[in-house]
């Protein structure tokens, strides 16, 4: 059997924050490292590199994943959104980002990108569930907490983050 | 027409001034710095907590392509670091704890640096380590740290603190109840979400060193770094990127920081070191583990008579600022609740464990745990209510304690009354006998609220300027570490100068620019930096007022500053602030709209007996915490936390809530889930999977009642708030669990295993 060449790069293409990217990556490269070191998306944070803290959460096709556990080659053909992709061209923040600020849900901010991406993924989940449905479903507070279990924060005690998520996911129309 | 108003912005929920960059991925943390030509550093640590280093062979590592520099202790000319200068930057001849640094590499990529580390061969002669501080104190134990002067009789004693007030023997005679216990407190860690990091850039041409460092104390750090590297402090510039969590962990300088500087000095290139999460667990500081022996008494009326305390602190192999936690610990014992006599002795003991550092609360959570547990036991013996005994002995306004702390304001009684009534404490009797048992526990805390004078100065400098367009720049010595100090300072400037928040900038990250400050610790920043800013504002307003008087041709200088305008109250004519500044700059005699002020709190150094009024003011808090315990699994659910805190004055309720919630969650973690598990000096759980931080699902209902006592020393009456919320939490939870189960709790954390053991022990 032929030995697999681990250092040989593989061509992949994907959409990053609505922009087409073509690049060569090593089969062993992690999406987190590619995003931060090669594509300059430093808003995605390295917190533990073992999928426990959620600081590196990004969206792949709208779903939250830990980019520290995700091989970059698997991003081929997919849509990736990072925290930078949520800010509109005119500098307007996404409503989740705004809710985080307004609810006092950011202190040191190291977990914040991942938290925001996780809240976005909850929003996306309910958007897809509610597509063409009359009585729109909404998560309750306990469900929101459960969704956010994978994102650790050492500063805020989570309460303001949950408040911000509730505001966007439950209270806003 | 302008009219005088009460406070306009102070007291309102202003969102974080620097919020936008922190929610959009634009904030630059140390991890995000990438300088041209930058190398990546990595550190080889020992495999054994106690061993002789017989040989270090770097030859194979040096051959690796991309390795630019490898250093060991033999390659560097440096001084020891740490509070007692007992800590070599790279270890020579022996290692004494599992985080010990043996060699460091700088390479062109992270991977090469890590691979080079693996190629360094070290031969050890393994010794038997000493991991129990009581064993370390035995005569037969060998000396662990060879760099201490021998000030103490016992060779493994790092530091001893002794304090007393009152006549303890007399008070013992008056006591009708006496309780004594030994409490054991665990090792926990900060677990900042951003791991430790530094980027060093030495410029060979100028001989100057720039450090991008997440220290909490940049000016002390600059001095410590200069001492370590034998440089002039002013040749070292500290730039602080955004910090991914502090909580006291960045109060000391650690070996990786001068190591990174040395790699940059040797290579002449920028070098960056970033800890992995595992490295963060192994090689960043911890809270002090303590063994607390405490004996207390009360008289027939329930008055506290005496406290006799002996503490052994596991110092680890080296001494950090954390060894000075008894400054704070003894305050809790001498001055939280009234007590007629107190005798206190704390000994920090060298062991082959990792060294403990400073952590939010600075020894106070440990002390408060022991004290508040004992108070419940005293109440049980006296057969009086746990609320009554606390109210009877609570601290009061204008009290001067045995240690000389002067409570010019004191919300202790109000805090207790508030949580007792809001939690319905008297009616929460545990009557259930099934699987789930409910309980409620009370605890209070005392902490410095106006800085702590333990350095030569506890001051903070501010330079303030207004530009010709009416924008204001605050250059402050204090740092933002996520707690919100930038926001509070911007609010103060906006309040006083009538400039809208979007036109206020805060500059606070560069020691070459900002005036001196002792650093972020002791819950001091809003108090000290706030007062410093108010001082600068007063000076600047005098200048602006003089120009305004001249322009308005008036002798009256009672100006109001609002909405970018300056005017005498009710006068028809108002001046635009920017115009006044332009007139100052550009008309004779010309002058800048700039002012500097250095604020030093009105606190005292304590004398050799540790007596004196060490802080500008004091903060108090009480918590009543309700728990529900599953007697089958030992699991504790925290259902309600009622917390009242004497904050002096609420400056910003939104940010204040954040400090309270975050502190309480850290306190709950300390009480029930967090523990670093060591076996023979090696950490068994260096990851988030096995070191249990609480998650969003663990959040209880937190009911917060701020108590405003309006201390005249504080900015607008405010006191420091940051550390207080976590200090009484573990104590209140332990009291609640004891209430629920009628058990003894002698150690933390109250993991399910420990709870079940205690239940079985009772049977």
Explain the overall architecture.
The complex is a heterodimer of chains A (173) and B (763). Chain A has two domains: 10-86, Ubiquitin-like (UB roll); 95-171, Orthogonal Bundle (DNA polymerase, domain 1), CATH 1.10.150.120. A five-stranded mixed β-sheet of chain A has the order 2-1-5-3-4, with helices on one face. Chain A is globular. Chain A has 173 residues and is α+β, with helices and mostly antiparallel strands. In chain A, strand 1 and strand 2 form a beta hairpin. Chain A is 31% helix and 14% strand. Chain A has helices at 31-38, 95-102, 112-129, 141-147, 159-171; strands at residues 10-16, 19-25, 57-60, 63-66, 79-81. The longest helix of chain A is centred in the last third of the chain and has 18 residues, at 112-129. In chain A, helix 3 runs parallel beside helix 5 (159-171). Chain A starts with 9 loop residues before the first strand and ends with a helix. In chain B, helix 13 packs parallel to helix 14 (525-552), helix 14 crosses helix 15 (577-586) and helix 16 packs across helix 17. Chain B is of the alpha+beta class and 763 residues long. Chain B has three domains: 19-26 and 459-599, Aldehyde oxidase/xanthine dehydrogenase, molybdopterin binding domain (Aldehyde Oxidoreductase, domain 4), CATH 3.30.365; 33-128 and 195-243 and 250-283, Alpha-Beta Complex (Aldehyde Oxidoreductase, domain 3), CATH 3.90.1170; 290-452 and 606-762, Aldehyde Oxidoreductase, domain 4. Chain B has a seven-stranded mixed β-sheet, with helices on both faces. Chain B has a five-stranded mixed β-sheet with strand order 7-15-14-13-8, sandwiched between helices. In chain B, strands 16-24-25-28 form a four-stranded mixed β-sheet, sandwiched between helices. Chain B starts with 18 loop residues before the first helix and ends with a helix. The mean pLDDT of chain B is 96. Classes of the chains: A alpha+beta (173), B alpha+beta (763).
């Amino acid at each position: 059997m032929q030995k697999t060449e681990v250092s040989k790069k593989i061509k992949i293409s994907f959409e990053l924050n609505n922009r087409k990217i073509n690049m060569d990556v090593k089969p062993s490269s992690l999406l987190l490292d590619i995003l931060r070191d090669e594509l300059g998306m430093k808003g995605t944070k390295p917190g533990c590199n073992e999928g426990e803290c959620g600081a590196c959460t990004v969206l792949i096709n709208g779903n939250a994943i830990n980019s520290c556990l995700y091989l970059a080659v698997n991003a081929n053909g997919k849509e990736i959104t990072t925290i930078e992709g949520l800010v509109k061209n005119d500098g307007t923040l996404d409503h989740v980002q705004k809710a985080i600020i307004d609810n006092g849900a950011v202190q040191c901010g190291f977990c914040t990108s991942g938290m925001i991406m996780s809240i976005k993924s909850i929003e996306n989940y309910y958007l897809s569930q509610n597509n063409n449905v009359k009585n729109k479903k909404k998560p309750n507070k306990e469900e929101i907490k459960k969704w956010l279990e994978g994102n650790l924060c050492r500063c805020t005690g989570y309460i303001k983050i949950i408040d911000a998520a509730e505001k966007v996911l439950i209270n806003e129309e | 027409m302008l009219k005088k108003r009460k406070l306009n912005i102070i007291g309102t929920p202003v969102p974080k001034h620097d919020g936008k960059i922190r929610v959009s991925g634009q904030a630059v943390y140390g991890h995000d710095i990438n300088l041209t030509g930058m190398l990546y550093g990595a550190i080889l640590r020992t495999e054994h907590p106690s061993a002789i280093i017989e040989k270090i062979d770097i030859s194979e590592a040096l051959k690796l392509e991309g390795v630019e520099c490898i250093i060991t202790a033999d390659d560097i000319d440096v001084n020891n670091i740490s509070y007692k200068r007992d800590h070599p930057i790279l270890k020579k001849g022996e290692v004494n704890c599992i985080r010990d640094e043996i060699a460091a590499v700088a390479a062109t990529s992270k991977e090469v640096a890590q691979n080079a580390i693996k190629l360094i061969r070290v031969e050890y002669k393994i010794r038997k380590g000493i991991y129990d501080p009581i064993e370390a104190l035995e005569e037969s134990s060998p000396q662990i740290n060879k760099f201490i002067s021998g000030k103490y009789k016992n060779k493994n004693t790092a530091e001893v603190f002794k304090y007393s007030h009152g006549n303890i023997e007399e008070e013992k005679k008056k006591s009708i109840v006496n309780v004594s216990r030994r409490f054991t407190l665990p090792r926990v860690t900060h677990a900042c979400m951003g791991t430790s990091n530094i980027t060093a850039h030495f410029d060979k041409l100028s001989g100057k060193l720039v450090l991008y460092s997440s220290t909490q104390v940049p000016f002390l750090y600059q001095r410590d770094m200069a001492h370590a590297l034998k440089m002039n402090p002013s040749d070292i510039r500290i730039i602080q990127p955004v910090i991914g969590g502090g909580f006291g962990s960045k109060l000391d300088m650690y070996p990786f920081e001068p190591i990174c500087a040395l790699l940059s000095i040797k290579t002449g290139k920028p070098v960056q070191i970033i800890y992995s999460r595992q490295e963060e667990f192994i090689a960043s500081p911890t809270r002090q583990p303590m063994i607390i022996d405490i004996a207390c008494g009360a008289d027939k009326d329930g008055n506290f008579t005496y406290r006799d305390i002996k503490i052994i602190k596991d110092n680890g192999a080296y001494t950090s600022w954390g060894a000075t936690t008894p400054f704070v610990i003894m305050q809790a014992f001498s001055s939280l609740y009234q007590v007629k006599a107190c005798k206190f002795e704390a000994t920090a003991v060298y062991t082959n464990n990792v060294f403990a550092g400073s952590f939010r609360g600075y020894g106070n959570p440990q002390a408060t745990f022991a004290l508040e547990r004992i108070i419940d036991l005293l109440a049980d013996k006296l057969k009086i209510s746990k609320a009554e005994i606390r109210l009877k002995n609570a601290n009061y306004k204008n009290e001067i304690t045995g240690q000389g702390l002067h409570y010019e304001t004191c919300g202790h009684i109000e805090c207790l009354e508030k949580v007792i009534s809001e939690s319905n404490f008297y009616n929460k009797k545990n009557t259930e006998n099934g699987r789930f048992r409910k309980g409620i526990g009370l605890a209070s805390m005392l902490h410095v609220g106006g800085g702590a004078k333990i350095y030569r100065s506890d001051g903070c400098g501010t330079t303030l300027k207004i530009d010709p367009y009416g924008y204001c720049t605050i250059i402050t010595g204090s740092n933002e570490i996520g707690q919100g100090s930038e926001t509070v300072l911007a609010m103060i400037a906006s309040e006083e100068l009538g400039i809208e928040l979007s036109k206020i900038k805060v500059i606070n990250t560069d020691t070459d620019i900002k005036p001196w400050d002792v650093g972020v610790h002791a819950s001091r920043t809003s108090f000290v930096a706030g007062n410093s800013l108010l001082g600068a504002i007063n000076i600047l307003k005098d200048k602006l007022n003089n120009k305004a008087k001249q322009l308005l041709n008036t002798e009256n200088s009672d100006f109001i500053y609002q909405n970018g305008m300056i005017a005498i109250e009710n006068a028809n004519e108002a001046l635009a602030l920017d115009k006044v500044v332009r007139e100052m700059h550009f008309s004779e005699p010309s002058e800048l709209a700039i002012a500097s002020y250095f604020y030093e709190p009105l606190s005292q150094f304590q004398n050799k007996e540790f007596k004196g009024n060490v802080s500008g003011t004091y903060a108090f808090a009480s918590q009543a915490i309700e728990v529900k315990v599953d007697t089958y699994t030992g699991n504790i659910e925290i259902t309600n936390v009622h917390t009242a805190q004497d904050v002096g004055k609420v400056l910003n309720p939104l940010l204040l809530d954040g400090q309270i919630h975050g502190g309480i969650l850290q306190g709950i973690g300390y009480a029930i889930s967090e523990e670093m598990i060591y076996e023979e000096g090696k950490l068994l759980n260096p990851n988030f999977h096995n070191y249990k931080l609480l998650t969003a699902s663990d959040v209880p209902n937190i009911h917060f009642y701020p108590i405003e006592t309006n201390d005249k020393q504080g900015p607008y009456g405010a006191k420091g708030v940051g550390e207080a919320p976590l200090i009484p939490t573990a104590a209140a939870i332990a009291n609640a669990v004891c209430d629920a189960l009628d058990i003894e709790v002698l150690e933390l954390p109250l993991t399910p295993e420990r709870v079940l053991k205690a239940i079985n022990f009772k049977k």
